[in-house]
Amino acid sequence: MYQPALRPSFVSPRLGLRGLVCVVLLAALAACGFRLKGTSPLPFDTLYTNMPENSAFGADLRRLIVATSPNTRFVEDVSEAQARLTQLSLQRSMREIAISPEGNVEEYELNLVFVFQLTDAQGRQLLPPTTLRATREVPYDPDALQAKQGEIGSLFQEMQRSLIDRIVRRLTSPEVHEAYQHRESLPRETDAEAQASEVPAPRDEMMPSPDLTPLPSPSMVPTY
């Protein structure tokens, strides 16, 4: 019986070149520490934090950590934690950055500053005290006070989400994984930092929207 001769398989040179380029790019990204977005498990399973679970900042941060590292479980007793995430300070402020010739405020700068550290159960610093900042600028119009109140509130919420995302990226970074694996050689936290980790952080609320004209000066803005 006649059988047609099999044709040799043929791979387009262009297709082969594209495949080679993809492999090279993935290898280069992996060498730089790049990881595709998804879960990035923390190197420990239990975590304690002094940030209240019923605060906006604390609740959002906990949710993102669990979503990013599903095996991580928050514990209420610090003695049960393999690591401690400590809020050292959280401050919100606003300042005048543009004044009209008539002396009226035309623009404000909003600032959100968060300072934290990550230690293991023995107080060794996996991440030393770290400061993250978020800044936004907002024009001010005294004739649209109510609209500006809403805009400022929305901007602070956006800044908070941005900071939380950056915090989680730091916690799941290769730096933390390596530090946890070699934690025996790490420096320990100071006595003041150790005490701070066991004291609940003040409940944080978004800075009240201004209800006066002009907006409150920085000295009138509460810090948390």
Count of spatially separate domains: 1
Largest sheet: 5 strands, mixed
Compute the separation of the termini in Å: 88 Å
The SSE order reads HEHEEEEHHH
DSSP, total strands? 5
Number of helices: 5
CATH architectural arrangement = 2-Layer Sandwich
The order of strands across the largest sheet is 2-1-3-4-5
Which residue ranges are poorly predicted, with pLDDT under 50 across at least 5 consecutive positions?
A: 26-37, 204-224
The level of helicity is 25-40%
- Determine the structural class based on helices, strands and strand pairing: alpha/beta
Q: Assign the CATH topology.
A: Double Stranded RNA Binding Domain
**What characteristic shape results from the CA principal axes?**
elongated
In the CATH hierarchy, what is the superfamily? Lipoprotein like domain
Write down the overall mean pLDDT.
Answer: 78
The Cα radius of gyration reads 25 Å
Task: Supply the CATH class.
Answer: Alpha Beta
Question: Can you describe what's shown?
Answer:
- With 224 residues, the chain is α/β, with parallel strands linked by helices.
- The chain has one domain: 2-Layer Sandwich (Double Stranded RNA Binding Domain).
- It is 33% helix and 24% strand.
- It is built from five helices and five strands, in the order H-E-H-E-E-E-E-H-H-H.
- It has a five-stranded mixed β-sheet, sandwiched between helices.
- Helix 2 packs parallel to helix 3.
- It is elongated, with a radius of gyration of 25 Å.
Question: Summed up, what is this model?
Answer:
The protein has 224 residues and is of the alpha/beta class. It has helices at 13-31, 56-68, 145-171, 174-181, 191-198, and strands spanning 46-49, 73-74, 83-99, 105-120, 125-139. It has a single domain, classed as 2-Layer Sandwich (Double Stranded RNA Binding Domain).
